């Protein structure tokens, strides 16, 4: 019995000394932090990536289409974020598109996710009816532009894409029927 009591006291004293030593080091100049813990490495290779779909201008300019009903479904719709021409495409992430309704106003939302692939530098999004033609050829001319460094960026296009391009003044998403196709071009510059 005495042996167990002495052993318990020794273990308790050892634990107290270890904890107090670690606490003392943490609050003194004896604490050492590995400099590699906070290092972020960004590749120097930057590529232009697009939501996978129909090629419309250069070999990598693409758009995809979904009906309004599909975009209203839980989870929306997803496309690969790809770089390169057909036959030699490289996946650099995912693009998810959905429609949110807040206070009766429907808004097109676009999420770029490059987790595990690289970091997003900037994003551009265009949305329009197929009758309005193809999206603009230059990503900088799209309806929404964000500059961002990170793996995930969600663009809630409340200001730009509550109305989409119809070849004229634009049409409210709320006014579109469920079977109406919405053409979307989603572009991101990705370091990988």
Tally of individual domains? 2
End-to-end C-alpha gap: 64 Å
| Number of DSSP helical runs | 2
What share of the residues does DSSP label as strand, in percent?
A: 35-45%
List keywords for this structure.
192 residues; two-stranded antiparallel sheet; alpha+beta; elongated; Apoptosis, Tumor Necrosis Factor Receptor Associated Protein 2, Chain A; 10-stranded antiparallel β-sheet
Q: Can you summarize this structure?
A:
By secondary structure, this protein is an alpha+beta fold.
What is the strand and helix layout of this fold?
Elements: H1 2-26, E1 46-51, E2 54-55, E3 62-67, H2 68-72, E4 77-83, E5 90-102, E6 105-113, E7 119-128, E8 144-150, E9 152-156, E10 163-164, E11 171-172, E12 181-191
Antiparallel strand pairs: 1-4, 1-12, 2-3, 3-12, 4-5, 5-6, 6-9, 7-8, 7-12, 10-11
């Amino acid at each position: 019995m005495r042996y167990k009591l002495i052993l318990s006291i020794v273990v308790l004293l050892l634990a107290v000394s270890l904890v107090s030593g670690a606490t003392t080091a943490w609050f003194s100049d004896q604490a050492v932090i590995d400099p590699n813990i906070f290092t972020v490495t960004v590749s120097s290779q930057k590529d232009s990536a697009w939501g996978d779909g129909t090629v419309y201008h250069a070999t990598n300019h693409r758009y995809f289409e979904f009906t309004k009903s599909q975009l209203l479904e839980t989870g929306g719709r997803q496309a690969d974020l790809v770089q390169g021409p057909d036959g030699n495409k490289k996946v650099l992430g995912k693009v998810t598109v959905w429609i949110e309704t807040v206070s009766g106003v429907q808004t097109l939302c676009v999420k770029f996710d490059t987790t595990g692939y690289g970091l997003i530098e900037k994003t551009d999004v265009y949305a329009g009816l197929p009758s309005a033609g193809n999206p603009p050829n230059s990503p900088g001319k799209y309806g929404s532009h964000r500059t961002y460094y990170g793996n995930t960026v969600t663009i809630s296009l409340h200001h730009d894409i509550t109305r989409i391009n119809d070849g004229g003044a634009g049409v409210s998403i709320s006014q579109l029927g469920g079977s109406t196709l919405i053409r979307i071009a989603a572009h991101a510059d990705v370091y990988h």
